Amino acid sequence: DITERKRAEEALAEQAVRDTLTGLYNRRYFNQRIGEEITRADRNRQPLAILLCDLDHFKTINDTQGHQVGDDILKVAAKGIQQATRGIDLVFRWGGDEMVVVLSESTREGVLIVAQRIREKIREISVKANLTLDLSIGVALYPEHARSVDDLIRIADLALYIAKKNGDKIHIGAE
Q1: pLDDT by residue (tens digit) across 146-173?
Q2: DSSP 84-149
Q3: Which strand (E) or helix (H) includes residue 51?
Q4: What pLDDT score does 16 carry?
Q5: Which residues pair with 37 in a beta bridge?
Q6: Burial 130-160, CB ≥16 within 10 A → b, else e
Q7: Quick one: three-class SS letters along 121-137?
Q8: Computed over its alpha carbons, how large is the radius of gyration of the chain?
Q9: Residues with Cβ < 8 Å from 67, sequence gap 6 or more?
Q10: What percent of the chain is modeled with pLDDT above 70?
Q11: Can you name the residues that pair with 10 across neighbouring β-strands?
Q12: CA distance 49 to 145
């Protein structure tokens, strides 16, 4: 049956771009899409932001509460991050307890608003689950900080390190 085959093909195509645990886009799909997003940013002369988000204290939750609780927290956190972003934004599971948000057409002020909204969602989850959970976010802006994907990721990663080290939880750029 052609309809059944078409559904199966669509399901496989969806699985190829989604993380099986969280339902977020996967890293492989990030690698496909980010070039398109940068091209769109250039064409529209609009900035783009990459937010590298890392759940704080997640390893402790996994170690003390077990991996099933950890998986449940990842699912709820993924949903919370999606709820805190706009429909045009893309949310990816980067790996482990890290997620990447690509904000198109966003100013520095807009990035801070979204980052605060994301952190608030994670704090709500933490309170509901009676856990010590928070989120640190490192941000790289295109084209302000870099023009290549690798450099943007590197800067977002450095910004994340600074956000965690300084305790400010959200840091833009590598300085």
Answers
A1: 999 999 999 999 999 999 999 899 999 9
A2: HS-TT-EEEEEETTEEEEEEES--HHHHHHHHHHHHHHHHHHHHHHT---EEEEEEEEETTT-SSH
A3: strand 48-56
A4: 86
A5: none
A6: ebebbbbbbbbbbeebbeebeebbebbbbbb
A7: HHHHHHHHHCCCCEEEE
A8: 17
A9: none
A10: 100
A11: none
A12: 10
80/83 Cα distance (integer angstroms) = 5
Run of H or E including 50: strand 48-56
Consecutive H or E run containing 58: helix 58-65
Sign of CA dihedral 154, 28, 89, 137: negative
Q: What is the pLDDT of residue 20?
A: 93
Region 100-115 average pLDDT: 96
Contact 133, 61 (CB under 8 A): yes
User: Residue 112 burial (CB < 10 Å; 0-12/13-18/19+)?
Assistant: middle
Share of the chain above pLDDT 90, in %: 86
Q: Which of 42, 97, 157, 168 is catalytic?
A: 97
Residues 66-103: b if buried by 16+ CB within 10 A, e if exposed? eeeebeebbebbbbbbbebbeeebbbbbbeebbbbbbb
Strand-pair category, 90-95 with 98-104: antiparallel
> Is 97 marked active-site?
yes
